[in-house]
Every structure is written in structure tokens, then in C-alpha cells.
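Sample 3 of the quickstart, ligand adenosine monophosphate:
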Amino acid sequence: MAFGIDLGTTNSCIAYVDDAGRPVVVRNALGEYTTPSAVYFEGRDSVLVGAAARNAALLAPDLAVQLVKRHMGRKDVEYTFHGRRYTPESISALVLRELAAATERRLGRPVRDVVITVPASFGVAERQATRQAGEIAGLNVLDVLAEPVAAALSGQERHPARGVRHLLVYDLGGGTFDTTVIRMDGDDAHVVCTDGDRRLGGADWDARIRTFLLETFAEQHPRLDPGADERFVQDLWIKAEQLKEELSSSLTRHKNLRFAGKAVRAELTRQRLEELTADLLDRTMKITEETAERARAQGVTAFDEVVLVGGMTRMPAVAARLERLLGTTPRHHEPDLAVARGAALFALVRQAQQGDAEDVADRLGISRAQAESMRSRRVTTVVPRGFGVKVLDHNDPLAHTDPLRARAYVVHLLPAGTVLPADTGPVAFATAMDNQPGIDVEVWEQNGRESSEEVADNTLAGRGRLRDLPPRLPRGTPIHITFHMGETGLLTVHAVEPASARQVRFDLQIGGLDRADVERARTAVARHDIGS
Ligand code: AMP
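Result:
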């Protein structure tokens, strides 16, 4: 049995496909469908994961990690608890391990083969880090899948494939926002374009409400300063989030705030909440509009469906604004579970592709033809951000004498939006100086949405060196560079000097850990007792 895991910024969720072919979300130890992606380090070898961790964080925030997904793939982020060091990957692994363990207890079956979802905007480094988080947790990661594609697949289950359809997926979760246009052609899913803001999500709405609550308290007790009290502030976070969620189904709610023996009744209406956060929603709509515009430039004139994903889309204002913007009534179907369900369906597809159709048909109680169609289902992904190499500007005279000071720029060999797997074939570059002994091949990834050749608008993703070039090569000697990127985003770079066939080939574990690190982390994570 294979599982789909939505490893979210604030909440995570796990699902599998039952014998009738329906994706089923598995409840955690507390009987809930989603588990907070929070880890609390109780002791050297014991951690709490989920709601218990979130609650414990109120009393000792220094011993807890939340929103770790925002740091996935970053080598410069590390946490230390009780003298042990943790990477974002190993923190995520602890969440994954708890999800798997709770599922094993509930279903009485081992959890091993999984598909884990990632935001469509995740670059290669973050995808690789996510895959490794799964490995550190002791799981066999069949694939990582873009969240909007998973959401689209989960909808497909209810709307059987019929011709070409275009979907716009609007995903507003606890910590991130993404919007993606997907083309479904029969059983194939293809990302047309995607954009988002990785630092915009429910937590920003909570922060506005928290400020409102603090101000309401201060109006009545101007001389008290509850904002300096850690417990009061942490409690305010919970109340703010509760208010926000309650106002999705009520028009007005209140909370009692208590501090230093004083109590204040703070009332908030849905309308006031929408005013306090209007600019946040506007930001998501602007990005959605631009994404729809880019899709239009690629020939997508209308959306057959607008799919809502993420807990925040339960706010009525989201669907209302989207309908005005796009003229399509959004589909609302348990937005916080859709991604895990789609991932479970995709995990089955991946398994079917590895096994034989007869066996899959048998196991699922579906016809052989259905199983065959599942095997042929393809999910195409695109390069989220452009990848290229840094080259020297030949028009700068310094390039031939003092290359370190010459102008350099980035040539994107794989522009954003290239469908994976992609192979550039050999692209011709040239040596900058006479007698060059070798060449540094630096791979750079575009930072923002806009493609730019300026080095400052790109990030170094990795490098290799083509060594031992034959002596006395004149400047301008051709060097061919080929980029190959697989569907899971693993980049293979090949550089060759064709005349001598001197070459270098390297795979980029961009941002990820090396094998030994993964093994070490796996042992370290396995040592922890995990409670929930
Ligand atoms: P997700 O990351 O998809 O699990 O979404 C989590 C975010 O959705 C958190 O910020 C929650 O506060 C928010 N959320 C969950 N339920 C609701 C609701 N009914 N109304 C508004 N926001 C909600």
C-alpha cells in the first residue's frame, strides 16, 4: 500500500487509496484529519509532534519548531535542542515519522512507500530536501509531487477525465500562498504556470487579529502592557486564529482577554476582519490575476474549474473575490485534505507504473483497462525557476585579462516553465582566455519570478570543474554544456571540450544533504521517542 503525504507549513495530512479506489485520509492519534507540523523537544531523546507540540510551544517556545517548511533546503538554517543539532530536513522527518507511526497504529499496516507533496514554487533544492526528509524518516519516497497537481488529481477522481480542461488552483495555507494553472488532458496533468508568495499565509491574518486584540485591550487599560507577557501573547495567537476560523461561519464573535486581574471582552465582526486584512487578500488576488494573465498568453482563455486548497480558503471572502476576478464559481471540497488525497492517488499511479496492471487491478477491484489507464497517466512538471550557467561577458576587455573583475552574467539554459524531463542538448560556450587549464561550471538558479541575467538576481546552486584541458588552447575554444533535469528535479550537468573529449559530469544535490548526512540524520531521528 502506498501513501500520499501533504507535508504542510502549518498542518500535515496523510491518505491512502482504499480497495474501492477512493482516497481516504487517515486520522491521527487524536482522531483528527490534520496534524500540526510542530515539533517540541521535550528531552534529549524525546519529542512531541502535532497538537501536543503546538500546545507545549506556548509555555516554552524556545524548545519548539513550527513553520519549518519555510526553511526547507536552506543550508544556513540549523536548530539546536538539548545539545543536538537539527536541520530543517530532520525536523520535517520527525513530523513525517509521527504521521507514519500514527497511521501504522490505526491501520495495522506498515507505512513505507510514500509520495510527498511540495509547493509548485519549490525549487530543486527544496524538492530534494523534502525527498531527503522522507528518507531520514525511514520512508521510501516514490516521488515528490506539486501540491496543486495533487489537488487537481483529487478532483479528477470525482470528475472523470474528459478532454482538455484548464484548472486554476488557489492555495492559501497557514504559511504560504500559491496559485497555479494546470492543464488536464485526459489523465495527464501539466503545470502551465505557477506563482505565489512563500511568506504569505494564515499566520499573517492571525497577526492582524492579534494586533486588533491587543489594541482593544489597551484602549480600556492603557497603563497595562500585556504585549510584553509571553504567555499572554502566545494565548493571543490561539485566540486570534480561533476568531478567524469562527468568522468563516459566523458574522460576529468575541473573546475574553485576561491580564493582571483585568478582563476585556473583544468583539470582532467578519466585516471588520476583512477590512483589517484587505491588503493581504489583495496581494493574493493580484498574483492570481497575473498568473491568469500569463496563462492567457499561453493560450488558456478560460478556466473550467477554480479549485480551492488550504484551510484559509474556508474564508468566504476568498471564493467571493475569486468569482469576481475569474467569473467561475470556485469548487470547495474540504480544501485542507485535497492535496493528501491527490498525493495518495498519485502514489498508486507510481506503484502501478512499477508493478503489473493485472496485480493493481486485482488489488483495487478495478478493471484491467482502468488499471492500464492509470499506468499511462502522466503528470508533467515544469522547472519552477530558471537554471543556467554563469558566463563572462566577452565584450568586456577584462574578460580576457582579469576575468575575476570582468562583468559576468547568467545564461538560463532551462528557462522557468520548461517541461520536465528536459534536456538542453549541447549548448556552445567558449573559453575566455588563452591556455585556460580548466573551467568552473557554476549553476545558478533564478531568484524571482522574472528571468534576469544579472548575477544578483540568481543564486548559486552548485558547481563543478572541468579540469585538465589540453595545453595551449586558444581563447574562444568551444565548450559544450548540457543540462538534463529529471521529473523529480534532479539536475545533471555535463561539460565537454569536444576536441579532446575532456569532460565533467555532475549531479546537483542542490541545497540537499549528502548521503552520509542523510544516514546520520536517519539514525539520530530514529533514536527519538515521539509522542503526540
Ligand atoms: P493549511 O496550511 O492548509 O492546513 O491551512 C491552515 C490555515 O488555514 C491556518 O492558518 C488556519 O487558521 C486556517 N484555517 C483553517 N480553517 C479555517 C477556517 N474555517 N476559516 C479560516 N481559516 C481557516
